[in-house]
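Appendix C reproduces, verbatim, an entry submitted by the partner laboratory led by Prof. M.T., so that reviewers can inspect both the input and the predicted structure.
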Amino acid sequence: MKSEKSHHIFLFEPLNDSPISVLWDLVLAFYVVRLAALYSLLTLSSHLLLSHLAPSTTTTTAITTLLAAALWTRYVMQRWQVPPAVGFRGAVGLLAGGMIWVVEEVLWGVGLIVKWEIDIYPDLMLDDLSYGVAEKDRKGKT
């Protein structure tokens, strides 16, 4: 009798023993969470450090944060010899991105960081957006 094939994506060859397979999945999950936590800690700390040491434009901060994130990604992947499987590295990246998002939302809620604000139309008032009339046009008519 043939055994049924599992529809799960495995990083390594699945084991036949069920308890061993479950333990192996738990070890891999712990490994992914640990790498994601380390990566998010390194990226977030470098972002906070760079934004407070050299306060400048939003663009400069975004570029240095992206550069630091790329360097930390390379370091984490090389240091802990993460296999080049897209699913594995993608899981680490998505989990780390989620962790960074949660931490930034908490820090923003507490008031320790300020979210990036880009004012595309500085001459428009918030009330004027609902009427579609610019402030300078209203001043010119009155």
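Residues 79 and 104 are 26 Å apart (CA to CA). Additional entries are available on request from the coordinating office.
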